Each structure stands twice: as structure tokens, then as C-alpha cells.
Amino acid sequence: MEYPPCVEINPEGDPRHSVIWLHGLGADGNDFVPLLPELRIPADRRVRFVFPNAPMLPVTVNNGYVMPAWYDIYAMDLMAKIDVKGILRSADYLLTLIDQEVERGVASGNILLAGFSQGGVIALAAALRTDKPLAGVMALSTYLPRAVPVDGSVRRRIFQAHGRMDDVVPWQAAMNARRRLEEMGHDLSWHEYDMAHSLCAEEVADMREWMLEVLG
Description:
Elements: E1 7-9, E2 17-22, H1 36-39, E3 47-51, E4 56-59, E5 65-68, H2 84-103, E6 111-116, H3 118-127, E7 136-140, E8 157-163, H4 171-183, E9 187-193, H5 201-214
Parallel strand pairs: 2-3, 2-6, 6-7, 7-8, 8-9
Antiparallel strand pairs: 1-3, 4-5
Helix pairs in contact: 2-3
């Protein structure tokens, strides 16, 4: 499986922290770059932002149309049948990106994973399948299928946010993920907003506050 090169936004000076941020279905690595000025992360935190690009895959629910996708979606009911193999493949790819950041001088405990929708599934799956220290995970408008095997033995700091009017990832799917993460004992910061499958200004403000805390 070929994963295209990542989009990178580097700070002045050597990075002390890295944020690896995965886009959703049909988007690309540039999707969240315009958000960075709104987050207003101080320059002295020296954060490198890495935005991976998903591979081009035929997506079953879209009549086999080839598009950027971290894994296949078989049906509109996201929980009906899960592409576990595809999810684990992309989660393993994300783990290699963590290793690359470590090789480039960023301690794994200073690496924050983030993902929107499909990207959030991969961020959670990767974080819960490694024992490496991590700064945390931002799981945005996403879910965590029970069929995906994870190891909850390492306690993670997780920012989970969802829109009450999300018509793509159902509210119940988000609540199921929340319940599973809490049952595993993770440090979960839950946020809900009057929005659809998107971001809103209030969420961005909450994300900024949480990121500044976990990025020290």
C-alpha cells in the first residue's frame, strides 16, 4: 500500500514537539493546515505539524469510487461491517510516522496524535496499540469500532469531541467510543457541540487550551 508524502509545517528552530494530524475520508493532508493560525500555538513551543495523506482506495459505500481513504467503508451503517484489516494497516503506518519523528529528535512523549472522522479512528487505534509514551490523542468527530483490537494497558490523555447534529458519524457511535475509552481507564476530556460533521469556533478554542496543556 502506497502512502503519499506528508505535508509538514515546521517551526523556527529544532522542533520540541510534533503533532501528527490525520484528515477524514476524501480529504488530504492540506485539509487542516488553514486551522493552524486559529490555534495560535506559541512559537516557543516549537511544534512541527505533520499532516499525512491517506492512500487512494476504492470505497465500497461510494460505489467503488477511488479516493483518499484510510480504510474502506462498506455501508452507511458504520458499525455494520468493519474494514479491520485496513484500519490496522493505516494504524501501523501511523506508528512508523511516530518512529520517524523520534528518529528526527522529538521524544515520543512529546508527540500528539490527532484525527478527524476516519483519521480519528486511525489515531485512536495507533495510540491504543503501542506502549510508547505519547503526549495524547485528539479524536474529532470519530468513533472506535469494537471489532478493532486495542490494548488499553497504557493510559492515554484523550480529547474527544463530537457534534450533536453529526449525520456522518452517528452520536451513538461517538458515545460508544467514549464509553469504551472510559472503561479502559483513559484520561478522557469529552466535548460536545451544536454542529454537524465539522469543526466549530468553540471546539477550536477548547482544542487550543488542551493542546497547550499536553504540549507543556
